[in-house]
Amino acid sequence: MSDISQQLIEQVQQAAATNTPINIQGRGSKSFMGRSASGTPLSVAEHSGIVSYQPVELVLTARAGTSLQEINAALAEHQQMLPCESPVFAAGLSSSTTATESSFAGASLAGTLACNQSGPARPWQGSIRDLVLGVRLINGKAEHMRFGGQVMKNVAGYDVSRLQAGAMGTLGLITEISLKVLPKPPATATLTLACSADDAVKQMNTLAAQAKPLTGACWLDDRLYLRLSGSTQAVDGTLKQWPGERLEHDQEFWQQLTEQQLSYFSGEQPLWRFSVKPNADPIAIDGPWLLDWGGAQRWLRGEYAPEQLETLAAQAGGQVAKYRGGDRHSDVFHSQPVPLQLIHQRLKQAMDPQGLFNPGRLYSWL
Amino acid sequence: MNAVERPDKQQLAAMFRDFVDPQFVISDAETQKPYECDGLSMYCEMPLLVVLPETVEQIQQVMRVCHQYSISVVARGAGTGLCAGAMPDPEGVVLSLAKLNRIIDIDPVARTAKLQPGVRNLAVSEAAAEFGLYYGPDPSSQIACTLGGNVAENSGGVHCLKYGLTVHNLLKLELVTVAGDIISIGSEGLDSNGFDLMALLTGSEGLLGIVTEITVKLLPRPEQAQVIMAGFDCVEKAAAAVAGIIAEGIIPAGLEMMDHHAIVAAEAFAKAGYPIDAEALLLCELDGCSEEVDAYIPKVEQLFQHFGATSTQISHNEAERERLWKGRKSAFPAVGRISPDYYCMDGTIPRGQLAYVLTEMAKMSEHYGLRVANVFHAGDGNLHPLILFDANVAGEFEKTEEFGGKILKLCVEVGGCITGEHGVGMEKIRQMKVQFNEQELIQFMAIKEAFDPTHSLNPGKGIPTLKRCQEYRSLGADGIQPEQPA
Is B1 a residue whose pLDDT tops 50? Predict the structure, then answer.
């Protein structure tokens, strides 16, 4: 719970002076993501703590290493939440941490943004990227800068804050993030029904086109799960109108889905994440599949050639990444056409001219 | 580009006329006149040429020619912008996207629309209506403003607390680069791999590329929408009521505040039934499924009364809802009727600072002898002070600009920013250094150069160059030294 930004600036200065690449580490919960890390580890876990939180402004500012658990707990005291439902991955921490005297484990705020991690509510409540209002970060010249702010509308300058989403720390060392938060809905309920993947895609898209309090739509093992959250009246009213039976202990199901603790996610088989058009036909591979985000995010397990999956993802209007497992030395994120590679490289050059931050973590050519 | 001799105006026009319909290459002063400014008409300039391509291929060709001869390009939509972001460069070309106004496709199942950049904002919702869908961001200029302009400015509107800004409602962009190449950003899925270039391009004010195709998300039209209007005898009570609604866990679809000057002007203009004796007025719209709206409307009315509302009124049908909104939506032109001219500011502040900011502004108003009417997107903290002035009085616009600069500085001091939704453009370029330090401005410039190394796209806007930045710094700490635009 301390501000070590000066120490972090000095570490980046040192790295720049010696031209030594840095492997930025948060709280270690997502070290499985991206390509294999290289460079000297630099931990931001100790740079933690909530800097300001005013429930009535719906804005929270916290240091990079603050755990999501701590943030979620602070928000819950005021019946608020991070609407993007990012995974906490608390179970993944056990071995790696020397960092935390804090009782909180799992994902850090900055790691969550750098990896752009959002949970089942993402299509309806936005992603972590959508919630970002501002960041402070140290660029490759060891300059500590502030972009965006703590207000909901701000169009001065380029949106360097949201640019950090999914950049895997390659554009700078994030030190602080301001986020929009929202009230927790008073009521939640889940409907479930048996159906095929094909029917599930149709149902999820049909229902999402209605102005109902849908906040989760997932299909697994021939069952569709529909979560409703909102006012008691809205949830009760929709329960009466929509198909399916009420699922008991539903919060456990959605939490396990968010935290990737369902049995679907266990085992060593590579886990692929497709981000596609929500109404795309089921992708022509046997699976096993898990459809989430109303059809817009689809998980696949198994050994496949990335090129084959990229072709299928593109046909479905989107992209695919090797999320976990398998070969992490080759590229794991959906390939970029040459003109976009050039823009990535130029932007990297603009923010990190010596290529210090997380070289190769996002792409082999970056 | 190495030394290639620049063509003169007529030579360049002739080059464009090789591939663009000759009538859409405008080189005479009279026909160029409408392009000399955007919605901020105090800033105007005649361009070298105006060109209105009809296809993406023509845009590419225009960009290639301009790139070859290092000629600057200012992209333009409907020209409704309020920051002189589309003000021409006298040495450059205005590239109007008005001819690319086709709705390419609406996918009612995926709930998306694929659009050309010249499509009007409201036209998207009108076209989606038959599927029970609409497009979320609804800037006040939505009848006229285009999607391309919305992307350039990251436009908001009165519903963005609940439904987000343009950046939250985009899926995919097609872009022509400064060199004339086409790139595609984003996908039809929600998240894309690599850098979030969508975020970088949204709100980039035409400084990074020319957007030629836009895929947006569409939302289901709410089953029900109702407005509650409440009058208060002081601004503090209205501000407390706003906080009270949020504390209750209710996120309204729209939550707007007007001060006394704005109420009186709007009521005289729109006959919306506003209480003209009130010091502050709140308009709160709730939408969604019927059960929820039915439950929350009486709750919000009770809250308003609890916080000291002197009057409340609820819309019971669409006509009443539209009437209550009409005053707010016509507030700017209404203010235009009580003053020869007005200057619209666009700061954002933390909501809790509203009363302090309004008090400080009242002091400044007295100091400058200029009245201010305030319209406030209370839900998201975006404040639009309208400074009333008379451009025919010598020196009054300069005084107004100085006053405006001080308001923006105040917004930054209380933790806000210099522009919530109108953009920086040419107008607020001096205030950029109030919000950002030199390192940050240099960082912005480096990002700009990653896309546009020759500074050919919308030069002089959005991001001050270091040289100018130093000049402003030497002018004094405010960055508001009056400087008559050319």
Answer: no
**Partner residue opposite A151 with nearest CB, options B195, B292, B349:** B349
* B444-456 tens-digit pLDDT: 999 999 999 999 9
Q: For position B308, what pLDDT does the model report? A: 98
pLDDT mean values, one per 10 residues, chain A (366 residues): 94 98 96 95 97 96 97 98 96 45 78 98 98 98 96 95 98 98 97 98 98 98 98 97 97 97 96 98 95 98 97 98 97 97 98 98 98
Contact between chains at B291 and A293 (C-beta distance less than 8 A): no
- Tell me the nearest-neighbour CA distance from B59 into chain A, angstroms: 18
Residue partners of A161: CB distance under 8 A and separation at least 6 = A132, A133, A134, A135, A147, A148, A177, B199
Distance separating alpha carbons of residues B250 and B166, to the nearest angstrom: 23
Residues A102-139 as b/e (b if ≥16 CB within 10 A, e otherwise) read bebbbbbbbbbbbbbbbbbbbbbbbbbbbbbbbbbbbb
CB contact under 8 A, B351 and A321: no
Tell which of B155, B188, B345, B422 to mutate to test the A interface (max A CBs under 10 Å): B188
For residue B352, the chain A residues in CB contact (below 8 A) are 54, 56-57
| pLDDT the model gives residue B484 | 39
- pLDDT (tens digit per residue) in B269-281: 999 999 999 999 9
The mean pLDDT of chain B is 94
Q: Average pLDDT in the B417-440 region?
A: 96
Provide the pLDDT for residue B3: 55
Of B243, B417, B436, the CB nearest to A56: B243
Q: What is the DSSP letter of B120?
A: B
Residues of A with CB below 8 A from B131's CB?
209
Q: What is the DSSP letter of B114?
A: E
Which residue from B256, B250, B279, B408 is spatially nearest to B328, judged by alpha carbons? B256
Tokens matching residue B147: 């999607």
The answer to whether A216 touches A85, Cβ cutoff 8 Å, is no
Q: How far is CA A162 from CA A5, A114, B202, B401, in A?
A: 21, 10, 11, 32
State residue B470's pLDDT score.
Answer: 56
**What angle (nearest 5°) sits at the alpha carbon of residue A323, between those of residues A117 and A161?**
35
DSSP run (H or E) holding A258: helix A250-258
Residue from A41, A148, A202 nearest B154 by CA: A148
pLDDT value of position B370: 96
Sheet arrangement for strand A59-63:
A50-54, A59-63, A173-180, A132-138, A144-148
**Chain B CB contacts of A156 below 8 Å:** 417-419, 424, 428, 431-432, 435-436
Distance from CA of B437 to the nearest CA of A (A): 8
Find tokens 């004010």 and name the residue: B205
How far is the C-alpha of A347 from the C-alpha of A203, rounded, in Å? Answer: 41
Give the pLDDT band (50/70/90) at residue B476.
very low
Tell me which chain A residues have a C-beta less than 8 angstroms from the C-beta of B431: 156
Q: Report the residue of chain B nearest A338, measured CA to CA.
A: B183
Instruction: List the single residue in A122, A145, A344 with the smallest CB-CB distance to B440.
Output: A145
Token couple for B3 = 């030394």
pLDDT at B466: 72
Interval B157-183: pLDDT, tens: 889 999 999 999 999 999 999 999 999
**B441: nearest CA partner in chain A:** A157
Neighbours of A84 (CB within 10 A): 25
Contacts B420 to A, Cβ<8 Å = 151, 153-155
Selected residues 223-282 of chain B with any CB under 8 Å from a CB in chain A: 223, 243, 246-247, 249-251
| Global ipTM | 0.96
B296–chain A Cβ distance below 8 A for any pair: yes
